[in-house]
Each structure stands twice: as C-alpha cells, then as structure tokens.
Amino acid sequence: MPRTFPLFARKAPGFKPVSFKTAAFAGLLMLSASAAAASGIDCNKIGNAYDGLFANANDRVQAILAEFKALPGGATEQKKDAIRKRFCAVAGELVGFYKFVQALGNDCVKQGDNMTELMGVVNKQLELAQQGVKTACEQ
User: Fold this and answer.
1) Would you place residue 3 in the very low, low, confident or very high pLDDT band (cuts 50, 70, 90)?
2) What is the model's pTM?
3) Between the CA of residue 60 and those of 26, 31, 63, 90, what are the distances in Å?
4) Structural domains of the chain in order of their starting residue, each with its CATH number
C-alpha cells in the first residue's frame, strides 16, 4: 500500500489520498519549473518590474484601513470582523509578493548579481508586512 501524507489522506468528497511518490513527483516538477523560470530572470529589472503589484495591494490595504477607521462607534463585531478578514487577505497577498521578489532576488544573488540594496528593502518590507499580518490576523 502506498504511503500517504496525513494532510492529504483525509476523506474529502471527490479527493483521493495522495501517495508519497505522487507528491514527490509533483514537488520535483514544480522545482524544475521554478528553476527554468529563474534562469530567465533579468535581475536588473526586478527592482521595478513588480511595482504595479505592490502599488495595487498597498492601495487596497489603505482603502480597507480607511473603511475601518470610518466605522461608526457602534459598529457591530460582525462588520469589524468582515473588514479585518479583507485586510488579512490583501495583507497576505502583499506578504506573498514580497516573498516572491525575495526568492527572485536570492536566485539573482546565486547567479552572481549584486542585489544588496533591493534585498535590504524587500527584507525590511517583508518583515513589516508579516508583523502587520501577525498583529491583525492571528487569533
């Protein structure tokens, strides 16, 4: 009988347990796709190539914070929780974007590029974003 991962072995409608071999193959496939993508990175453009993603996510975070601040004093916990959940979703996206750029930058460093300035900014912003998510979203 094939070994299964406990997380994937749960009896969910329409899902079969995933064997270790299947999961390992999928992992290797993802790694090879990631390596292929990394080899095509233009390291000089990483610093501003994803500015639109960050600006959009940041604008959405600011809009959600403004909506929260505009809540009347007697706002229900349900309304506050709904706004908090939206904040957590968008802030989580922002953390993911920073981790993505961090991974690209680390690949560029491995290729010999000097990414010190970019990585300093990305690491600091990632830490701040993670702190915000931890404070607001972990219960």
Assistant:
1) very low
2) 0.65
3) 34, 32, 5, 7
4) 42-137 (1.10.132)
